[in-house]
């Protein structure tokens, strides 16, 4: 009996290590986008990923038939939402890194954009995950994309009137 449990634990460990090897890079990038930290200096994103992977490992045996990537992404998103939305802009909270492409967005806008555009989660699934209506998710996504597009363009160049040619 003891040998069987040991072999199951070994198999579980190998399966989880294979999952982490394949998914951790993409999940870390998603977490870095969420926290709006610099890619080379992202302690909050790494902490968020570690918590999400630990949660996935804890329920690994109950995931049969369910995609562990989806479970990890879901926990990553809800953990980020729980922490970021309640503490956004509070004293002692870190601000987004100015070089982050998603820095001008609120945490909610970043979360919705990362889920829908980077991760490819459908609008209805995103709404269900966040407890919002699909219309609200669509409006937030539109506002966030508009913010990013207008920021990318920058101010319009000044238009000068042509000089009059003396006759």
Written description of the protein model:
With 167 residues, the protein is mainly α. Helix content is 66%, strand content 0%. The chain contains six helices and no strands. Helix 2 packs across helix 3, helix 3 packs antiparallel against helix 4 and helix 4 (107-118) packs across helix 6 (134-153).
List keywords for this structure.
167 residues, mainly alpha, elongated, single chain
Q: How would the blueprint of this fold be written?
A:
Blueprint: H1 2-35, H2 43-58, H3 68-87, H4 107-118, H5 123-130, H6 134-153
Shape: elongated
> What is the β-strand count?
0
Category from helices, strands and their pairing:
mainly alpha
Strand fraction equals under 5%
Mean pLDDT: 85
User: If helices are DSSP runs of H or I spanning 4 or more residues, what is the number of helices?
Assistant: 6
Order of helices and strands: HHHHHH
Radius of gyration: 22 Å
Query: Can you give the helix content as a percent range?
Result: 55-70%
Contiguous uncertain segments of 5+ residues: 88-92
Biggest pleated sheet:
none
Determine the N-to-C terminus distance. Answer: 104 Å
